[in-house]
Design a protein that fits this description.
Helices cover about 85% and strands about 0% of the residues. The chain is built from 4 helices and no strands. The two termini are about 20 Å apart.
Length: about 140
């Protein structure tokens, strides 16, 4: 019970800043799809993966999911992390990764990188739970 409350608290804490990124992503997705070109595909993929990651965080709030839904939830969380990494790599490049690694501006770093670190933590917890569920059955 205590772990579930901590899990929910961390999920909500992660969802707060990521909701802003979701709004920006949906707006960007709308603009990209309205003027679609093949060059935009490189940005379209990470944005879509990021939106799936947000859905995975929302799914993380639901209790007592079966193995199938836990696996889907884990897949969505992983896709969100992959989308974030791809977006930083494609848009920011080396400079973005230097900024992330060096932690030059801690307050901005916490807003930008903190939710992803919490998502990674929640994904690890979800993977452990899913592994335990598979071992029991």
């Amino acid at each position: 019970m205590k772990k579930d409350k901590l899990n929910n608290f961390l999920t909500i804490l992660t969802l707060i800043p990521l909701t802003f990124y979701l709004v920006i992503s949906v707006y960007a997705l709308y603009n990209i799809l309205s003027k679609f070109s093949v060059d935009a595909l490189i940005i379209l993929i990470p944005i879509t993966l990021g939106i799936l990651g947000y859905v995975g965080l929302l799914m993380n709030l639901k209790k007592n999911k079966g193995q199938k839904w836990e696996f889907i939830n884990l897949t969505f969380l992983i896709s969100g992390i992959i989308g974030w990494v791809l977006f930083n790599s494609f848009v920011g490049g080396i400079e973005a990764w230097k900024w992330i690694i060096m932690i030059d501006e801690p307050d901005e770093w916490l807003i930008f990188v903190g939710p992803i670190l919490l998502t990674v933590y929640l994904t690890i917890i979800k993977a452990k739970r899913l592994t335990t569920m598979y071992m029991k059955s």
